[in-house]
Amino acid sequence: MGRAYVGFCLDNAELLDLMGSIKHDPQASAALLDATGRWSEPIERLMAEGQRKGEVREGPIARVGVTVFATLHGYADLAATGMLTPELAEGGLDDVIAFILRGCAPDARA
Questions:
Q1: Are 23 and 36 in contact (CB under 8 A)?
Q2: Do the Cβ atoms of 93 and 6 come closer than 8 Å?
Q3: DSSP designation for 11
Q4: For residues 60 and 78, is the Cβ–Cβ distance under 8 A?
Q5: Rounded to 5 degrees, what are φ and ψ at 63?
Q6: Confidence of residue 110 (pLDDT cuts 50, 70, 90)
Q7: Which of 6, 16, 13 is nearest to 97 (CA)?
Q8: Which DSSP symbol is given to 83?
Q9: Whole-prediction pTM value?
């Protein structure tokens, strides 16, 4: 899912920018605002399932999820704006995903 999100961001940087800004327009439709509230539901379900299985650290899904989203979105933004060298962009997503997986793992002290 992370790879799909970053791929979408890289392939559609201008659309992503538009999508991010239009939801803050005072004339944004109720349907758009409703859709922006639902975009994270599949990810939240996966994280909750991971918690039930003991594969994802305990805690509110929103707190765990925001770190995942911020990391993926930050990487996508850096890559889309050319802030990464070709060498970093080449294997960078693999490193980001490995970092997220380690960060979401249950606390070893528990």
A1: yes
A2: yes
A3: H
A4: no
A5: -75, -40
A6: low
A7: 6
A8: -
A9: 0.77
